Amino acid sequence: MTVNGNYVQGKARIIQAPPNPLYVVSGATARFVWDYTVDNRKEEFQLSSPTWNYNHVNETPVVIGYDHVLIDWRWTISNGTCPTRLLYPTTRVSRESNATLVISNATTADSGIYGMILLLKTLPPIARKIQLFVTTRPQFTRQFQANNILREGEDLRINCSAIGNPTPNITWVLLKDQAKEIKSQGVGFADLVIQNITRHQNGTYQCQATNNPNEYPVETQTQVTVWYKPNITFLNWTVDE
């Protein structure tokens, strides 16, 4: 932008960023849909800008790639700092459109924090960071009985546990008339505990494991049947003579 013939900086800005956190299933493609606007890249940007970075938790960020003025702002992979897992045995990282970072065939090792930075000549850099979780479907670590039969007044305890990346959230629910009533929750495992069970707690109890809000939970269930003593009612009959 020019004012009275002089160039004024400050128009560069990021106008789109991916959801944070970003969840991707292992083996799928992770797309960090960033976008930015700038009036004049040569006037506002440093020689290499934007840059795309990666850092694992508590690690120093490393440059994955950048656009460079000397090659007409084309995408360039930073071979000296880009994580080798993104380059070998095949290159899995690229840039689409204006600023979208793409990682194909994502693995759990790709999980971490990714960022795009606009490096400006005279103003502070403009950055956005996104946490990526590459998930594997939860798997239950044990199978429990399909049917549990108890006498009224007994205690019920069933453990449900699952593994996955990241560690799944576990939820026990009671299925009731198309609804689901939450009974207990945990991370990695959860116990269904009913003390002094009554006949009114008969039903189907389902254990759900999930670690990706974009995926349906993995489910398994058990039928709980409560036996109870019958109530005997005596009827008084009157016989007319």
TrEMBL record:
Gene3D superfamilies: Immunoglobulins (2.60.40.10). Residues 138-225 form the Ig-like domain. Keywords: Disulfide bond, Immunoglobulin domain, Signal. GO terms for biological process: homophilic cell adhesion via plasma membrane adhesion molecules. Coiled coil: none annotated. The keyword Signal applies. GO terms for cellular component: plasma membrane. It comes from the Eukaryota. InterPro entries: Cell_Adh-Cytoskel_Orgn, Ig-like_dom, Ig-like_dom_sf, Ig-like_fold, Ig_sub, Ig_sub2. This is Hemolin-like. It comes from Actinia tenebrosa. The gene is LOC116296332.
